[in-house]
Diguanylate cyclase
Amino acid sequence: MIPDFLHKIRPGSTEKRHPDPLYAEQVRLLYENAPLAYLATLINGAILGYVQLAFIPLGVVLAWYGCLLSVTALRVLVTWRYGKVKRGADEARFWNIAYSIGAALAGIVWGAAGWVLFPPDSIAHQVFVAFVLAGMVAGGVTVLAPRMEACLAFLLPALLPLAVQYLTLRMPLQTAMGVMTLIFLVVMSLSAWNFHRVIRTSLHLRFDKQELEAEVTRRQRAEEQLFQEKDRLQTTVSSIGEGVALIDADGRIEYINPAAEQLFGQRCEHVLHRPPNEVFECFDDQGERIATALEDSLHSATPQRRQYALYGKDTAKYIVEELATPLLDRLGKLVGAVSVFRDVTEVQKFTEQLIHAADHDVLTGLPNRNLLTDRTKQAIARAHRKHESFALLFVDLDQFKAVNDTMGHACGDALLVDVAKRLTDCVREEDMVARLGGDEFVVLLDGPTHRRHVEAVANKILRTLREPFQLGAGSATISGSVGCSLYPDDGRDVESLLGRADAAMYRAKQMGRNQKA
């Protein structure tokens, strides 16, 4: 039975409306990613409850999991309803609020696990609770990042109770865990914000592209009338910023405008009555010479659109987007074709930079956690298939805060860039060095890898980090602590391997720093 309130949902009746399509698309992404998140919630909740039965009464575990089931079922019903109703951009606010409430309820239930499933007598089971909550929060960031209010509605109630629980125990280890939980909450919030901005930028680019296509379509309609008055055509197209070329029924150039002259490095009088393939040197992604859309539009008598690389007279490479349209006379006879050329070189570079920024650290240029996770998953799949091993090294700098405090953040940034270069020089070309944030780095030693090789690389890293760093007019000396994990001995998934390497790194710090573990 579907609850009555779901039948009564009338999103259009909300007082405040958001007709912004970007807002609506963000909400749609929330619901699109929801089913997998719900499944992961139930599975992880069941695993947590089962493991904690060793210290927590069965009734408490069942009550908590029952709450989790109830909240998840409610969210599933809301998601189902969202998929069924006819919705528009002006109803997105209602659905965003509904989703955020569900996320908040889920966060409260998971946060309750930090109290009711938190055994005071078992540090291992306490850590397991923290591990599961951290995993849920990390996974939630990718699902909820399209809307920050939904993301924070889940993150805060999910982690704050655990942090309070640790801090109230007033023991050194638990206090440290509480502080680390708060730090993790802040890091996850910042990661969610960065991911949110990347998503917004990507959506902006998508909508900008749609607007561009609409603009090109409008120009196409205008160009279909330009053959009626050639003088007017030349006056009009000479004033626009995009390149325009016109060919006759025999496929020979009749006209190019000043923008096209500049783009192709050819004067109009020098290209008249010549076929386009003698004037425009166009190449596809594989470097093969191709025909222009202008020629294909004339041969097929249909509009053609194409993007390719073009080399101007100055040998500079341009990425050009071309939209070609056949020209018909009053009787429908093909009399030629016209093309609009748009230089999208800078747009493509900007897009590539955005794609690169989504997977790389801005400061050092190293891969970030997202790319590290993907590469580690690939390494796991390959190692599993070939029955090989590989390793992760978790590297944390010692005395980095002192450099920041005494020499300034600019020197601290320069040190991190130098550290990134040194770590990269310590490994093979097929290995990966990633920066997780702050002064934390992870080295993926792609397989096959043995423990002696891991130890050799770790020792090499420790040695190179001890060498002085030249920072402007001054210098600094630091060290590092390295934690190692080996697949499959220390874990069979990304989270386990990173967790073991992180834990080993902290052991190295406890042994006096400048150590490996």
